[in-house]
Amino acid sequence: MASVQIANISKPVAVGLDWRALDGSTSQRKEIATLVKSEGVKFGCVIDDEDAGITIVGLDHDQSEGQACGAAWLAAAVGRIPAILVEPISDTHLWICAVRAGMPVQGLDVIVEVADLHARLHDFQLQNTDAKIISSLDSLDVAYGDGVSPESFAELVANVAAPKVVRISGVNPKLVGVVGLALVAVACWYGYDVYTTQQVQAQARARLAQLNSDQARDAAAAQEKARQVFLAQAESVIRKAVLEQPGVDAVVSSVFAEVDSKPLTLGSWSLVSFDCDSRVCHINWKRLPGSTMLIFMKAAEAKGWIVERVSGNDAVTGHPVSPEPRSLGVDRLDEVAPFLAALESRLQEASALNLRYEVSKPETIDKMMNLPPADPKAGPAGQPAQQPLPYRVGTVKVQGTKLFELRELPNFIAHPGLGVKRISFDVKSGEWILEMNYATR
After folding, report:
1. What is the domain class of 230-245+326-440 according to CATH?
2. Rounded Cα–Cα distance for residues 273 and 316 (Å)
3. How far is CA 104 from CA 107, 185, 330, in A?
4. Which residues pair with 436 in a beta bridge?
5. Of the N and C termini of the chain, which has fewer Cβ atoms inside 10 Å?
6. 3-state SS assignment for residue 271
7. For residue range 23-69, what is the model confidence (pLDDT) as tens digits?
8. What gap in Å lies between CA 19 and CA 96, rounded to an integer?
9. In a 3-state reduction of DSSP, which class is residue 437?
10. For residue range 407-423, what is the model confidence (pLDDT) as tens digits?
């Protein structure tokens, strides 16, 4: 809990209270007394929903008696509409508070660092799928579009009386007197009906249990929906990196078809190397004595080539390649263990031709997407565990010193789970390199 100064609010506001729902097993007074005794607090904010028969208590560990209670004030301002408030309280911290059915949501009245905003807001939305976001932060309009209501806390509560943090336990003569008189008045006018009280309490417990069940169900559905979206994103990454890339044999054939058509010299510039992917080959040239950049540019223009760069003694030309792309589904991927065993076995066969290779360890697709890996133990109580994505990715690098080895290599390793990243060759050393991505399930 903290006492903070909010823009355009004249006095400090108590936020970050520890909200607890009473279970209705006995009288409200006794339950509050038991709760505050166990928590060692004397001050807080009590909210009753008479229609639902539910009472929720916000415990104030900082004992800010008389200050406005931020979460209760927000709930009073928005009514029964589910909402999530994001309010700046300093350059580095924000107050986030969720309310539903006219009450603060347990565990969702917190102060967070600005850097943690989107992660925490994502957690809030999982538990409040139908809640609107209320904030004056411009950045949220960009990130969440029409889902953000551009209002500040001060604007929301401008015409609403502020609930206060009060003494809810301990010696307070005024409070004791008021409660005593109220009990006497109730006893005089209505009497005490044990059976009716028990029935009301039972109904309140049932409503509270139903509310908790509904929230857990909604949170589980939201988390599953988020996981399905994440899974679709992962499959899109795999398709772009591997499954929709041309096959290894098609890329190698297209690269050789393009490179084989090029002369070893052009305008007294010598072809020294090439570097290709599945879309374009970049051919590197070196100036020979007696030639110039202008001579090279005119010679390349005569052949209709694209000169990407020419400077001093070096030039680069670009040549499109167009191997036939694939359109494969993730069902074509093999399981990781048999795939790697088969791949390395074929590479070992090819290494009889003096090839060298490196196969990286498989990583979860989360890393390729630059996202933290899923934690099976994570997730709020009552929500299903987040399962890791079922895909693994890695890289393969093969090297040799004779081009015919590269021509033959696809006969050993062509597979739906492989996609070419890069092919390079150095004329002087004869060294070639083939780099690939692999994907498994």
Report:
1. alpha beta
2. 10
3. 9, 31, 44
4. 396, 420
5. C
6. strand
7. 888 888 899 989 999 998 999 999 988 887 889 999 998 877 899 99
8. 14
9. strand
10. 999 999 989 999 999 99
